[in-house]
Design brief:
The protein is α+β, with helices and mostly antiparallel strands. It contains six helices and six strands; from the N terminus they run ααββαβααβαββ. 36% of the residues lie in helices and 14% in strands. The longest helix has 16 residues.
Amino acid sequence: MTNSESFQNRLSVLHSALGIPDDYSNTCSLPLCKEPSELVDTEADFYGRPQRLTPDSFASWTAMKQAASEAGVTIFLISAYRDIQYQHDLIARKLEEGREITEILKANAAPGYSEHHTGRAVDIGTPGCDALIEGFENTKAFQWLKTNGNKYGFFMSFPRNNSQGINYEPWHWCFRSSDE
């Protein structure tokens, strides 16, 4: 069995366990996101949890965070890399809370389709703003990111009314290297 087949088999099992429709890969407009071959440890996130990113993503994150600081803006990690099992567990917890899978999939991509799997996505926070809320768009940090994030290879993945059908996430940014 190839690595690709093994990955697809793992996804199939995880999707089935969550009740994700069999045709999800055909109906969602998110690309399949493979896990990277190399990750490095970053600073701990806002909650003190260890985080990881790809080496290039972490170098750019570090440079961007420093530049923001020099501009008087504080940004910090809320989350970074997640493997497909973590994504499964995140969605499973929401199902246990009584949420519907169709609603969950508007906020969390199914395992295998989250940019967090790539080791290039970061959820960003700033002091004085609760984590992972639309209100982040009203912060000095968000305004700085909109103007400067792309200089460091980071782009907001899910703007309002995005074509992927994911809820607006002003805090979610993904690194895209120059060779992509």
